[in-house]
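Take a careful look at the sequence and tokenised backbone pasted below. I need to know what the token row says about the fold.
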Amino acid sequence: MAFLNLYRDKLKTNFEFLKAKFKDSGVAWGVVSKLLCGNELYLNELIDLGVDEIHDSRISNLAKVKELNPEVQTVYIKPASKRNMVDMVKYADVSLNSELSTIKWISEEAVRQNKKHKIIIMVETGDLREGVMGDYLIDFYAQIFELPNLEVIGLGTNLNCLNGVMPSTDKLIQLCLYKQIIELKFNKKIPWVSAGTSVTIPLMLRHQLPQGVNHFRVGETLYFGVDLFEEKVIDGMHGDVFELFTEIIEMQEKPLLPTGVLAANPQGDILDIDESLYGKSSFRAILDIGLLDVDPKYLLAEDGEFEILGASSDMLILDLQENPRNYKVGDLIKFNLKYMGALAILNSNYIEKRVK
């Protein structure tokens, strides 16, 4: 049976590392929990670390956070839809917004629920996902700052989430200037410039973060310890907070090439035959996970002595060559995970989740 381990001590080390760095930089931060897919066991691990602000893109996950600890500030980190407005206002204390009509609906619903809802206005800075264009920001703000039961607590941006545009000091200075212009024009205080996600952390570590940036939303670097500029684990952090264990359910020596008339497989691929491999064989292992659980390209093999050949919906096939480690049926094979691989595994109901 395949299962996923979360290592509590490694997660704590990563959390304390980031907590200290943010404190030194005078930056507030919240933890993005969307990777955990609402898993109660793992959400409790976050809360037990002392996290007081949790961000998610699924309202049901924020509802779970409120159930576990009502004191945690919850932040909804994608534009809300009209049809989930009631629950969004109920379970999210803060939301990220870039649509005027949506903000008006939030105000109306907050009035109905008799609660104050905080918003961060997202600003487009080049990656072309969500965000108000800078040329329209003043007019945009003018139409929302007097709406009832709303409080604008920040300007924010997202980078490297769609087109790969990386954060830079210049882009973040631009966002800080927008905040200053709005504050001067409307005589309103906006507490946060929420310009930081995991991809922005290297700028902070290199002391290239503009002074005005004072809020981060962090997921990937907490869970994987990664510097997304250099694609490597940051010194002092762990890259293996999560590990996937899979079980060998078949182990046999088989030909390297299939026999028979070839057509496209269920994924639409047609095998490219290397005729030099005819007559050769190797040991093949079948593991108890498949495409239903994770795309193999997001698996990182700890053991360099095998190759992932492919997957069907429920099985993953490995080429173990001569099987130098003498693997057998029932043995476990361990994988580290890329972010999207961990997301898939955590979203799978078929993989057991454990804490070690």
